[in-house]
Every structure is written in C-alpha cells, then in structure tokens.
Amino acid sequence: MELRNYETVFILTPLLNEVQMQETVEKFRQVLKENGADIIHEENWGLRKLAYPIQKKSTGFYHLVEFKAPGNVVDALELAYRRDEKVVRFLTTALDKHAVAYNERRRNGEFKSQAKKEEVKG
Predict the structure, then answer these.
(1) Which of 72, 75, 76, 108 is the most buried (most CB within 10 A)?
(2) Tens of pLDDT along the chain (122 residues)?
(3) What are the two backbone dihedrals, phi and then psi, of residue 96, each rounded to the nearest 5 degrees?
(4) Nearest Cα to 16, choosing from 24, 26, 8?
(5) What is the pTM of this model?
(6) Cα-based angle 13, 17, 22 (whole degrees, multiple of 5)
(7) 32: alpha, beta or left? (left if phi > 0; alpha if psi -120 to 50)
C-alpha cells in the first residue's frame, strides 16, 4: 500500500489543563502509530483565539501533526477525533509534492531567515 503525506490540525477545548492537553495529543499520536503512520513533524501552537465561537468557546488549543501513512489511517484518526469530546474541530489534508517541499523548507527555517533579511534591508 502506498504511503501518502498528510497534515492534520485539531483544536482542543480551552477547559483542559496542560497535562490533560498533552495526554489527549499523545492519544492521537498512538492512534497514528498503531495504524502504521510515520510522524514527520509536530507543532503545538498553544492557546489561540478562534475565528468565531464554537460550542460557546472563543479560544482553543491548536496542534498540528504532519505524517506519512496509508489512506485508511485518516479514517481511523478522524473517528478518534469524533469520539473525543475534548476535540472542538479538526481538519486533515493530503499533501501534494509542493506542499511537502514547502513544509520541509518551513521546518528548516528558510522563511524566517528571509523575513529577517528583509527587516535589515528596510
């Protein structure tokens, strides 16, 4: 079975403390690993304001996971999201070769260094 690159972002309820948030993220990490996914990169974006209220909440803990896996893993992961009441929203997307290249460049800090160069010039 062919492995594809995916990226998933999920928002957890702001009512969680730091330990509960980390446990929930670890649970989704385990779902990915149990189904044969290879986690490439993770980012915890922290507590952020939502664009609009969801379930009467205006903030949430954002977390991004980039992984490589067969297609059936996405179904298992999204089922786990739907079963967990701590998840406010989620979105999983398949990445094409351009998105994979962009993410790799972003992880290597290419865009941050360009922004600093522009600040120095300005």
Answers:
(1) 76
(2) 688 999 999 999 999 898 999 999 999 999 999 999 999 999 999 999 999 999 899 999 999 999 999 988 999 999 999 999 999 999 999 999 999 999 999 888 887 766 566 666 65
(3) -85, 180
(4) 24
(5) 0.85
(6) 85
(7) alpha
